[in-house]
Amino acid sequence: MTPLAMAAEAGQSFIMEELLLANADPEVMDSLGQNVLHHAVTSGKASCVTLLLRHGTNVNTRTHENCTALHLAAAAGHEEIASLLISAGTTVDSRDSRGLTPLHLAAMEGHIKVIVTLILFHGAPINTLGFSYMFPRPTPLDLAIAENQAESRHVLLQLGGKTGAEVALTAACIIQKCYRARRKRGKAFHWYIMLAKLKGLRAPPPQSSYSPMPVPGAHSPRSPAAPLVPVSPKRGWMSQGNEDKTKKKPDHLMPPGLLQPPLPIQMPRASSTSQLQDLLSNLSEGEGGKGDCKNEGGGDVPENYNPWPYYSFTGKLRPWPVTPGRVVSDHIPRPDYADHPQGHSLSEQSLRGNTVIKVLTDEEQEGLRVACKLGREVLDEAAQVVDLGVTTDEIDRIVHEATIDRECYPSPLNYYNFPKSCCTSVNEVICHGIPDSRPLRDGDIMNVDVTVYHRGFHGDLNETFLIGNVSDTAKRLVKTTWECLQNAIAMVRPGVRYREVGNVIQKHAQSEGFSVVRSYCGHGIHRLFHTAPNVPHYAKNKAIGVMKPGHVFTIEPMISEGLSR
After folding, report:
1. What is the largest CA-CA distance in the chain?
2. Within its chain, how far is the Cα of 242 from the centroid?
3. What pLDDT is recorded for position 298?
């Protein structure tokens, strides 16, 4: 076991961060086929998992038993970690060597929260069949019954779960109907067409405006449910089929600007969505009132809306409903991740682990200056509408339209499936907040982070705004952060080590009684949204590189009233 894996299993995120900065490889496997992410999931520490996701660890790596990290999280009952992994792109219905999905394992162990999270929020198939050598092949409900998990059985039944025998009977009836149709038509019926018509074998995602939890530092909270990539029927007859492409897909499965997921095999009955919400509400009430959500500054979150009922919030701010992402015209040039189903930047991934800092030519520097100038204009337009009662979703609309008007692409849109065109971070949200329907309230502080992509270059900038009557402490926090930035900019010159930037920032922040958030850092930027160098904002870091003419990077100090993590 490597030192990084040992730190992950012990839940020591600080040690992990130091090792990763020293270029430790998180993909190294042990004798069981487990990489560092598997060990981090075993520790149950979401911070360790978040750190690895931020460094681009492959979430779909499998052990010798064909288990993904999501299998381990579901079996151990870590619903927050499960959500993080799904948000980062892991397959929600992946199978291990026994044919079991994460939902099977959660049902066997009686982890109610994981079951609800997988089905209600991430569209996990509820009636997937397991072992291939048993008949009837077991569904999650079968395993819950076999393991005497009464609560799991109750929840699965409420969510539409069936036994393997019921699923097999349904399939047999449809096969018979298809056989009769083939005889009547007098021509061969392709096997995969019949499979696409099987009904009742996959629970569709609920029709709700669910907004997923952001993956800190990954620049990529995922869309309401992970886009489902069409698969070949060879994966098994329980795999998602290919529906008739002429059918209109339901609105909740069509986030504009993203790759359209295929249509679920069966739409829910009219009452099924309300039943799911009622069940979730009842479960939340049983957790000591964690489902009650009130926003700082007064005002309730819309009734029955809480996408993360078991998440332990650090403050009073709560998520509000998120509208679909906005569309960018095809004629506008876009980065490589804009049309990727998971929003992955292949150009960035090809350089992962490369610490060589690109030196821009004079022509490239001029192209970047133009992108930054346009980004500043967009941010200025957003600043004009920031006021009490304005929603961050409205600010996102202004940013999106201003970006399009300048023939630019909003860089955050679909970057690792980020659903909006800018980031709006209110109060205790340190960065990468998703614009939603919450109105700005008296006393809020809000950061608007804008990046535009113009003719091959990203221009990234942000600004923090004070809403109404802000406390003296909040004013001092914002002022101190601005001073930290100015002090850091003042030391930028050829020959300065990137690791020295954090010394200046932390010294000033601590002198004012604040701490530096260590989980995020500045980064290189040019034709790539995020690249070398890393620019940590805290002291005694191990950043690699020395500033040279032609280097381009961001300095983004994030200062907190509370702890550094």
Report:
1. 84
2. 26
3. 42
pLDDT tens digits, 147-178: 778 888 888 888 888 887 666 666 566 556 55
For the chain, state the CA radius of gyration: 25
Name the nearest CA neighbour of 406 among 379, 384, 375, 383: 375
pLDDT tens digits along 42-75: 888 888 888 888 888 888 889 888 889 999 999 8
As a three-state string, the secondary structure of 295-353 is CCCCCECCCCCCCCCCCCCCCCCCCCCCCCCCCCCCCCCCCHHHHCCCCCCHHHHCCCC
Give the count of alpha carbons within 13 A of 492, CB side only: 15
Burial 268-305 (b: 16+ CB within 10 A, else e): beeebbeebbebbeebbeeeeebbebebbbeeebeeeb
Residue with the two structure tokens 């001029």: 366
Report the C-alpha gap between 89 and 102 in whole angstroms.
15
pLDDT < 70 stretches in the chain: 131-136, 165-304, 310, 565
* Tokens linked to 46: 């979401």
Q: How far is residue 260's CA from residue 464's CA, in Å, rounded to a whole number?
A: 34
User: Domains along the chain?
Assistant: 3-166 (1.25.40.20), 349-560 (3.90.230.10)
N-terminal to C-terminal alpha carbon distance within the chain: 27
